[in-house]
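User: Predict the structure for this protein chain, please.
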Amino acid sequence: MEIEKYITQAEKIFLGGGTFKDDRNERLDFIKNLETCDLLAVPGSGKTTALIAKLYCIAQNMPFEDGSGILVLAHTNNAVDEIEKKLKKHCPQLFEYPNFVGTIQSFVNKYLAIPNYVSHYKQKPITFDVERYEHQVNNFYLNIKNPNLKNWLDKKMYPIKFLIDLRFDKDYNLIKRLNSCKEDFELKDQSKPTYLGLKSFKEKMIKNGYLHFDDGYFLANKYLLKFETIKLILQKRFKYIFIDEMQDLEEYQINIIDDIFFTNDSKTVIQRIGDKNQSIYNIVKENCDWETRQEFDAQKYKNLSFQNSLRLNSNLANLVDKFVLERPSGYKVVGKFSGSELKPHLIIINRETTGKQIKKRFIELIKNHNLHHCEKNVKNGFKIISWNTLWNKEEENIDKKTNLKKLRLIDYYEYYEKESINRKDDHKFLKDYLNHYDKEKKTLESIRKSILNSFTRILDLEDIRDDREKRYRKSTLMQFIKNQSEEYYNDFKAKLYSWCFRIVVYEQNDEVYTEIASFIKGKDFIGLNWQNLENYHPKIISKSNQFIISSDFQLKEQKKEVSKEKEDIQIDLSSVHAVKGQTHCATMYIETAYQRPTYDTQKIIKSKGKNKSNPLLLEEHKCNGTYDKQALKMMYVGFSRPTHLLCFVVLEENVMDCLDSLCHTKGGIWEIDKELI
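Assistant: Here is the predicted structure, written as structure tokens:
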């Protein structure tokens, strides 16, 4: 395969005429490499761009003589969208048969879980969706007929969560969560009514088509056990596999890919790309599940590494490197960004300091360094982030040891978790279906599908099924409407067209929402003669009422707009999880409270004992506790976002023991800022 001859073209397209060459030529080495390997890449090293360039070069060699294709996998839809956005117009063949670009979940569902389900149940599953799954679990719990099971569950602190976490192993034994084992399950006697009741519940959930994402892996593994040839077929189908953001994969996801493709006879080339120190997806793990190939066979497999960060200057890289938790051979964060040599700022506050003062100081620093007058800087943005943002109802926000209030982002600012606006079929409320649809589509197709999905969701919530006792889909709903009468069918289509047109063209979302809500609740819809409903007369909406009337989407958006108007420099608020993978011009990281030791700095500063360590002072850091390691990873990710300015906001009381050293260390990396105390 010819790769090198296309690299210059890739540089013109993806680097705007720049080059992949540098002092280590690490990106070029990766692009040209076509052997099974793992790539360990530091933050801002351009790993995804290098992967995209590599895929472009491979695409120029397509179709392959043996008819095979490539498989490109990522953990999130956002990562897949980024690859597709940059690549599709230059090499559309990568997104056609025999290739596949998608998430691990979508690959498992498409090629393994759904074929197995259809083969066994002779129908397609309704959905792989956590929210809808949880709704069905809640319905089951409220209507349990088995008294033994009901009494047993009621003794639990969180019975619904227990039911949500329930899974099957490959032999249909109940287990709690994927990858656990039957020996760890608390009910040992499988002949007892309680165990049988739980097993029956889980079996019915799967049979009725309500599947948790985890069930996809259960069904996939069963399929692989049932048909061994599936592995051979997939190995021949995909000649090369590339997995981005490898550190975010769970053990069971890693195992299923290896089980299919990483066998003794397999000729598939697998390249896995990521950064173990950024494994903070969903939860912050002490240790990444990803074991690199070299860790178990150093003679056969050679790891590649990107050490040069094109995002971080030397000062920031030197700081971030001290927060490395897992340091395999060849892993070091080296700053190569030359657009700034600003030192990171350690901003000291006390308990009287307000969020308004913190934000004002951030804006002052941005202006002092003239960061807001560059179009690229403004595009990258200025963000205030923290590890912990909101308080859960179960959490205690008063420190019993000190009797002081513990602080999170919500205690400084009127903060809302941003709603997911990914293009998906299911949303929390009716109004969200009208706001969250694929706006890139040039036709009314996307909003039409979204509105019809909201109708089927309401029927599902009301437990209304079609004449075959199945959940209504868009097609069966339209067929039911057509069966009412030609006049009713044409009238409904006219309404649907009007709603779609007014949302897309005139943005009359509120007016359309009011009309749809009224139509749904009226006799012309819920009053129709729905099938197979003994002793049920759907004259009024009941179970889906909350779904129809609730939505705080626009309220949040309006509040965001008001805050925008008041600021000459837009400062966004976010969690560290949400900004992972992003590049900012300036980032302000505010330490917050979580478990003990309570605050971020308290977790990483060891002021007692022989193993004294403190990465704030750039000493070698050794941490043993779970929360220490989690804090280290969060700060590694948060501190590595900005190109120009990093501000770390800490409570004075938490750094008193090392503040003097920080202030007087010759050539210290921190700029100490005491303006707010």
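The longest helix spans residues 486-506.
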